[in-house]
Amino acid sequence: xxxxxxxxxxxxxxxxxxxxxxxxxxxxxxxxxxxxxxxxxxxxxxxxxxxxxxxxxxxxxxxxxxxxxxxxxxxxxxxxxxxxxxxxxxxxxxxxxxxxxxxxxxxxxxxxxxxxxxxxxxxxxxxxxxxxxxxxxxxxxxxxxxxxxxxxxxxxxxxxxxxxxxxxxxxxxxxxxxxxxxxxxxxxxxxxxxxxxxxxxxxxxxxxxxxxxxxxxxxxxxxxxxxxxxxxxxxxxxxxxxxxxxxxxxxxxxxxxxxxxxxxxxxxxxxxxxxxxxxxxxxxxxxxxxxxxxxxxxxxxxxxxxxxxxxxxxxxxxxxxxxxxxxxxxxxxxxxxxxxxxxxxxxxxxxxxxxxxxxxxxxxxxxxxxxxxxxxxxxxxxxxxxxxxxxxxxxxxxxxxxxxxxxxxxxxxxxxxxxxxxxxxxxxxxxxxxxxxxxxxxxxxxxxxxxxxxxxxxxxxxxxxxxxxxxxxxxxxxxx
Amino acid sequence: xxxxxxxxxxxxxxxxxxxxxxxxxxxxxxxxxxxxxxxxxxxxxxxxxxxxxxxxxxxxxxxxxxxxxxxxxxxxxxxxxxxxxxxxxxxxxxxxxxxxxxxxxxxxxxxxxxxxxxxxxxxxxxxxxxxxxxxxxxxxxxxxxxxxxxxxxxxxxxxxxxxxxxxxxxxxxxxxxxxxxxxxxxxxxxxxxxxxxxxxxxxxxxxxxxxxxxxxxxxxxxxxxxxxxxxxxxxxxxxxxxxxxxxxxxxxxxxxxxxxxxxxxxxxxxxxxxxxxxxxxxxxxxxxxxxxxxxxxxxxxxxxxxxxxxxxxxxxxxxxxxxxxxxxxxxxxxxxxxxxxxxxxxxxxxxxxxxxxxxxxxxxxxxxxxxxxxxxxxxxxxxxxxxxxxxxxxxxxxxxxxxxxxxxxxxxxxxxxxxxxxxxxxxxxxxxxxxxxxxxxxxxxxxxxxxxxxxxxxxxxxxxxxxxxxxxxxxxxxxxxx
Lengths: 480, 482
What we know:
The complex is a heterodimer.
Chain A: H1 4-12, H2 18-36, E1 39-42, H3 44-59, E2 71-75, H4 102-109, E3 113-118, H5 152-159, E4 165-170, H6 176-182, E5 185-188, E6 208-213, H7 216-226, E7 256-260, H8 268-283, E8 287-291, H9 299-314, H10 333-344, H11 347-360, H12 366-389, E9 392-396, H13 412-417, H14 423-428, E10 432-440, E11 443-451, H15 456-468
Parallel strand pairs in A: 2-3, 2-4, 7-8, 7-9
Antiparallel strand pairs in A: 1-3, 4-6, 5-6, 5-10, 9-11, 10-11
Helix pairs in contact in A: 2-3, 5-6, 7-15, 9-11, 9-12
Chain B: E1 5-16, H1 55-67, E2 75-76, E3 79-82, E4 92-95, E5 102-111, E6 114-127, E7 131-134, E8 145-148, E9 155-161, H2 168-184, E10 197-207, E11 217-222, H3 225-244, E12 252-257, E13 262-268, E14 278-279, E15 286-287, H4 290-298, H5 304-313, H6 319-326, H7 329-339, H8 345-363, H9 374-385, H10 391-404, H11 408-415, H12 423-436, H13 438-445, H14 451-462, H15 469-480
Parallel strand pairs in B: 11-12
Antiparallel strand pairs in B: 1-9, 1-10, 2-15, 3-4, 3-14, 5-6, 6-9, 7-8, 10-11, 12-13
């Protein structure tokens, strides 16, 4: 498995051609995908054509981008012009976007080669990728277990080394939790750091696109490329892109690490692994202290109200009138719209639309939505206080190890509780990176490192330092 | 109308702002065009797109707020109004709910010489919806419907009045006053026929002296002043009848059927939408600094009321004339421009509203579509002032100016219409006329003073109207009195 920089040099030195590289990856991907269900579409023809173009550039002596020839997977809720983008939903079964998301344009511009669209929970609603309307995604470390979600396809494909990196989206943990479950690095950037233009919205005030890669350096490279102001996204921060790659390899002696006790209530095996990792940080010269984020317990209900409320409005446009699936058996437009939505949306999506519709209804708005916004403010205050004392906070990514397929899907509450370590971060809008911090029962355990708004460069450095002192990222699952 | 009752009316006026592009994307706002040609992924609401606020819309909103004497808060925001209808591309309309761009304004209107102040609750920015095109005459008789999304995302300002209006005449005066201001500040064309301004009327009646309002109905989509007045009058009559018959008014939304001249029930309160408003998460709040607002205030053009006052006080125009001039911004600007070179306000008004206006009406033009420039119009008045032409010749020249847009000087030269002020030439004509009309000359000499009128007429006729009538009069008198 190559790292971006290594592959880049091999291409420049003509040790390998982009076409050879891409064909090799595609051949492997097709076999592996069969077992893991990581893709909803494989874009073989485009990939080879793009690789040919890169080779031509190289042989012409033209300059190429750092991602030139690098195989990547894009989550299926990120718009790709001319490539079917379903969001894992039947309602968009044959929907082909007419434009590229800003992040896709940026990756194409650097020469990144798309191998396909990654499977996901329908409309990014789920924590196990079991809500895909098409097929399951399996965890490369144990195919009877879930890869996490909703970016399960994006994390598993990187974990199984089907591609070098992928893009996911994170609304309540959808990059970090699957990255943790699959033993890879995944960054949820600060809200506004990466353009959302072209990301099919689940919850607009929480969604962020972010990179997933096998190691922190590659994750940082991709983040540097996709971040930065976009005039097409009014919520994007007017700041230049990050320079994380130039800022890794810095010493972390004296780094103040806060460990919020509210996040340490999960599975013993997870906690034990985390504690070992924290000890490692102390060994590396960091100062590790327990701290508290007192309003944590209110985060989960607030998240499900805000996310569902926004989703109920964002998903209203899928009505069969303009694009996507339509039920043709109805006599008037109202019936057509409601039957279309009933028939082609999955259960979890319909559930959240109903929760959100209810929370926004006259007479309930103040009790639910407005109260959830107040919780959001309190949570922000918790973190503001904590970051006065600490440079970063470290928590588990999830309270449990990757669970078995089918284990939680019937029990929403247990499933939702699995998001307890990640949802708060989206409500607060700060960045968080997930990296493997050890293994338990042969399964990866994810660690989450959190920082102030726009501290991605610091987070990449801290994660990178940890990674350099361990070998977890070098392990490769044997997909059985 | 039964005079036991008082009518209470509040108007919601939707004004299309005349920005070049739509409120949240770069598409053109031009009226017409083939269906679905002025659209892009953003206004089509395709999955994944995001809105970006057109700053012009905010500027126009602020300008309107200041012109209608409203407060413009430093903080306002967009909200989503959620409802399902195929003329929307997202099944929500991005609008403003609790924190609009301006609040608490007013307008003064005049009906039968009485000035009245109508409160304005608020004005908020929002996006227009598309248009459903049914295959049949009505929805129920149609086999299919198509949607044209060209209008989606055209910026609108909804201006909501207080329930201060008491008659259909006041309602009309209010909309006219509003239209006048909006065209003065150049934020809208206010073309009712193109739908760039339309009104919804909230109408109720109550016993005179009653403190509580009666139950109101809302009649939607009144897109002419006539429809507005007629719909209000119809509603008042209908509600009076219902109450007189011992019934109660249902709170409901009604629609105006122009063909039948009646309002029809659309939906009752029970079927009213719950719009589930919530803050638009894709748009940050609109934060306006005092400097920004003051800047717009400073650049505000002179408004109709101030202009009227100036014309009365500085130019000594009558209230009647001043009202005529300010009624249209184009005309008022035209007047001001001409006024720069013609120091006779009354002369300007007389010609503008007299011969010139009559000619425009006759050929089906209006002031703004006329080819006559202020320069040419001033030149015409100057020729009159210098007595190069007479009023009679002016009457002949004006149609030619309107027809070809030619300058009056050129017309005068081409047609040889210069007034004859040369006494020698006039004396020669007088001599001929006196010789040819001995009877009239005798009559005059015998004390029938009015026969001089006949002789003047003959001189004018002989000169083909070109003789200066003042000089003719003077010379004729001196010849006859010899």
